[in-house]
Write a structure and sequence with these properties.
heterodimer, A: 280 residues, alpha/beta, Protocatechuate 4,5-dioxygenase, Chain B, eight-stranded mixed β-sheet, 10 strands, 22% strand, globular, B: mainly alpha, Protocatechuate 4,5-dioxygenase, Chain A
Chain lengths: 280, 138
């Protein structure tokens, strides 16, 4: 069976990509955020994952409102980034792992998660930036990608409870896989932020810390809210915490150690965080 | 889920507001235009002839007016979704802090200062970095 070696969680603000391109990592504004990543890189150098199962949300690159899947699993041999509308440099492509993707797809549907299957899927900054942060300067990504996209754009969104259950089903899929891959589970986005409306600029450190303090040991504590309540608590884009919740589920229910944590306000309009967990 | 809880969530969608079926239906044409801006050629076509480009996507008069006035709150009211509107904002050279300032009536500097002040809300005893219990099972 595949070995789940850890869970990596991070914000994915587009501006982080700009800061990397400009080399701003050590500037006073960005340093408190980038300081969260050296411990994660050190851990990765030892842990050497070869597959990443990444829960994230599309920002209008791959999916439009004509067809908006609640949960979509990539099954491609390669995942490309593309111009997201701002003409910025395009991120590196990822190699896929179609055999593992199809195993996850089969297992999820057997487990009554009626997901959408994507043999073509563009991945946006929500997938690329987390790997730019942990493998800086890499010529190619040292991991193969299995991307799982969660709708955080158009309500109704899946509930936190459903996202945790999806993650747990992915965990069961990974443990029934015949290969011996070392899997890093990733959840990207958040934490609290709101870009739109009169409440633009809203953050909620109290809710963010509730999430950070409970994700490892008590992930079910995060499922007491509806998606709408999460939007009220975390801001309209803070619902990206759904990706973290699903990823935590995919780590399984064993006890977890917290290897690294960083929480910093603000990066762009966002309360930013990084977190690394590993099975105890 | 009980009827009361569903009703609470529907009220939240209207109050915040959240982009649900009502806004998604109202905003389809505007969001479709913004989605097209992933292609540089389309961004250039919009800049070259904004009126014709908006007409091609069948924007409603309300949407066309909001775009013409660069009125972000009106675009949202007309069903625009911020993930797609961000691509239109890019054409105008506006980042998310510019959008925040436009929506709240603050200057960009005031908006940035407001963002930074959220750090004051982090409790003094909060664990915001790796702490002494490194590696301890939680």
């Amino acid at each position: 069976m595949a070995k789940i070696i850890g869970g990596y969680f991070t914000s994915h603000v587009p501006g982080i990509g700009g800061a990397i391109v400009r080399g701003d990592q050590e500037t006073p504004y960005w340093k408190p955020f980038f300081a969260g990543f050296p411990p994660i890189r050190e851990w990765l150098a030892e842990a050497k994952p070869d597959v990443a199962v990444v829960f994230s949300n599309d920002h209008g690159l791959n999916f439009f409102l004509d067809t908006m899947p609640t949960f979509a699993v990539g099954a491609a041999a390669q995942y490309d980034n593309a111009d997201e509308g701002w003409g910025l440099p395009v991120y590196k492509s990822f190699a896929g792992h179609p055999a593992l993707s199809w195993h996850v797809i089969d297992a999820l549907v057997r487990d009554e998660f009626d997901i959408t299957t994507c043999q073509k899927m563009l991945v946006d900054h929500a997938v690329s930036i987390p790997f730019e942060l942990i493998y800086p300067g890499a010529e190619s990504w040292p991991i193969k990608l299995v991307p799982i996209s969660i709708n955080t754009v158009q309500y109704p969104l899946p509930s936190p409870k459903r996202c945790l259950a999806l993650g747990r089903a992915v965990h069961r899929a990974l443990t029934s896989w015949g290969g011996d891959e070392r899997v890093l589970v990733c959840g990207t986005g958040g934490l609290s932020h709101q870009l739109d409306g009169p409440r633009a600029g809203f953050m909620n450190p109290e809710y963010d810390l509730f999430c950070l303090d409970n994700l490892a040991a008590h992930p079910d504590a995060l499922t007491g809210h509806s998606a709408e309540q999460v939007a009220e608590l975390a801001g309209t884009q803070g619902v990206e915490i759904l990706n973290w919740i699903a990823a935590r589920g995919a780590m399984g229910d064993a006890a977890m150690c917290e290897v690294s944590r960083n929480y910093h306000i603000p990066i762009s309009n966002t309360a930013a965080a990084s977190l690394l967990l590993e099975p105890a | 889920m009980s009827v009361d809880l569903v009703s609470d969530d529907m009220q939240r969608r209207r109050a915040i507001p959240l982009f649900d079926g009502g806004l998604a239906r109202r905003g389809f044409a505007l969001n479709a235009m913004c989605f097209s801006f992933n292609d540089r050629a389309n961004r250039e076509a919009f800049v070259a002839d904004e009126e014709a480009y908006c007409a091609k996507f069948g924007l409603t008069p309300e949407q066309r007016d909001a775009v013409a006035r660069r009125d972000v709150l009106a675009m949202l009211e007309a069903g625009g979704n911020v993930y797609y509107l961000a691509k239109l904002a890019g054409i105008f050279g506006l980042g998310v802090q510019d959008l925040g300032a436009l929506q709240t009536g603050m200057s960009v500097d005031e908006f940035k200062a407001m963002l930074a002040r959220w750090a004051d809300k982090v409790p003094a005893d909060a664990r915001v970095a790796l702490c002494a219990n490194f590696g301890e099972a939680v």
